[in-house]
Amino acid sequence: MLSIGSMWYHDSDIGSLVAAALLTSATYLVSLFTSILFYRIFFHQLTKFGFNGPLHMRTSKLWHVWHCRKSQNHLFLDDLNKKYGDFVRTGPSELTVYHPDFFKVTDGPTTQCIKSEWYDLLWPESSLLTTRDRAVHDARRRDWKVGFSPQALVYHSNKILKHLDILGDVIDDDIFAGKPSQMRDLFYWLGFDVMSDFVFSKSFGMLRTQKWHYMIIRLQRALSLLGPVSPAPWLIQIAFRAAPRVCQIGDWFEMAAWTHEQINARLETGSEKQDKPDLVHYLLEQKESVPTHERILRMRGDSLNAIVAGSEPVPIVLLGLFSELAQRPEYIKGIYQELQDVDIKDSIALAKMPNLNAAIQEALRMYPVLPTGGSRKSGKNGVTIGGVFIPPDTTLIGPRFTIQRREDCFEHAKEFIPERWTTRKELVRNAAAYNPWGTAHHSCIARVMATDMLRATTARLIYHYHFRLAPGDTGRCVLEDMKDQLAPNPGHLKLCFEAR
């Protein structure tokens, strides 16, 4: 830069001024970044408290982004745990904590921890999930609770059964054609069809057409961004503002625009009475008869949140569960036997089936819906986890993928053993490590609905069909090919079905 300035204004006063300005700027920037690096490496409060981790990760989160370039943050953090222990410094002011007490300490009813800056991702729009202020979050959660009341869940249960009938028709078509079923497609189509019906009373119709909806294709492309850049969410904010229509970023805005259109259409018709009210109906009924601009922004964010966050967990857990069951037919037999004397359309009856629920619990443990997500920030007084004090204003990561597979918490932790929740409870050494749906006011508000859907789908398929792994499919690709994109993006699973 200095040589360019000198060449352009050779032997002139302006050239001398430019050269001096560039030299001063370069000196300032070098001094600034050098002092930042020295502070982060040697003088930061996490250094003073003795927290270890890769030296280069103390300097910048960009190193973490590099390690996650293949979207396998869950495996990277798992390796760090093996090397550095339960408290690992993974950023300038960030700790990844693998201690089983993490969840009850950071999300318990008396916690002073708050959601981290990661949750500002959608700003200026927000949703229940991304709201960081606890008082505002609690108020918005009360609005949502109406949509998840027992009466509302009865309406939703009937919608689930309708979509399960279509799923059965698709599997019957595969049986007739003599081909294996692509379970990854089927379970994702089911999840998104059900949630769009629940939120807008408008299904994507993917199961019926057996094709991916163009908006869901865009959404999944957009979510692929979160794999590498989720450790440094400010990169996404920069991209949103610098290139809002480029590649996967444009896909995200297209999906957001689609949800905005659905909300605007509903605002025009108002909260007309519905035979089976959807989530937007309940949100429209809350408080203001004429929603304010701020409230419309919240509803847009909430609807997008419901479609994205609500559709992902069920397919993920179902893929993990059915890959494990197909490798262990004895569990299929046990579940089938206990379903003989119950109505498989009765959610209350299914909730009492020990083998069915144990298998689902074990799948939730081994295939968490948030492998590494859900970061928190310690309060002004710091926080103590497992007897270790963590200073104030520290970002905290608690990777469920590793914590729920700890051998000191679950005997034979990497094995699928549903009996640990029923007849062999000694295999659960520390239940605090099991946290599939969150804790207290940060728990998943749709967990009852999601669990009902897991039970209904599993019961329906086991009751009506024999199934096995397709030739050449080991069932291990679901986990081995999984990508961590905030929610997991599991690998493929092919099953051969046969009507009972």
Automatic annotation (TrEMBL):
Database matches in Pfam families: p450 (PF00067)
TM annotation in the entry: 14-39
Any one Gene Ontology molecular-function term assigned to this protein's record: oxidoreductase activity, acting on paired donors, with incorporation or reduction of molecular oxygen
CDD domains linked to this entry: CYP67-like
Residues involved in heme binding: 444
Keywords associated with the record: Heme, Iron, Membrane, Metal-binding, Monooxygenase, Oxidoreductase, Transmembrane, Transmembrane helix
The protein's required cofactors: heme
Gene3D superfamilies in the record: Cytochrome P450
Keyword set includes Cytoplasm: no
Family: Belongs to the cytochrome P450 family.
Protein name: Cytochrome P450
Organism: Conoideocrella luteorostrata
